[in-house]
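From the shared-data thread, chain only:
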Amino acid sequence: MANEENRSTGKISRPAVFLDRDGTIIELRDYLCNLDEISLLPRAAEGLRFLHDAGYLLIVVTNQSGVARGYFTEDFVKEANDRITELFAAQGAQLDAFYYCPHHPDYGDSVKCNCRKPKIGMITRAAADFDIDLSRSWLIGDNISDIKTAVNAGIPSVLVTTGYGQDVLRDYPKGLRKPEIIAEDVCDAAKQIISWRRG
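Structure, as tokens:
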């Protein structure tokens, strides 16, 4: 994949695949609170390797409202993300960055933020940090908030049927743009994204 140069900065702009975390690349838990509960989804590492080899940055964007709810701390979120990185690295897969939103509008003095999906604060921050070409980027997730985030960011989306994905498909909201791709899992998503680009 050819990278594009940002003429204003001289930097090379790269596309990214933004990935939801829980239910998309790791097994879905009800507010993950223990590092021992972290388990990679089958074939997730394989999918990440495909995308990395195709030239995509791999950026995790995840809502972690358990912080605002008092279930766990931001330090735990960072520890969990580090553990996930280690588990993928052990299978030869690389994640470039994690961005998380610790807020919830009903908790923590009703903090208003621009990062909680479906808002696009995590996307725009990552795009600035990594000089990402959003016009060639994708978002993969298992929930409606992920699809809405992609719509709001103006990028195509993939709905995986892991996590909440099957329930989302069954009760997909009328009027919401359908995901460009529906995939069995991240590995299937990766293959379809690469085929879509070539097509």
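The chain is about 35% helix and 15% strand.
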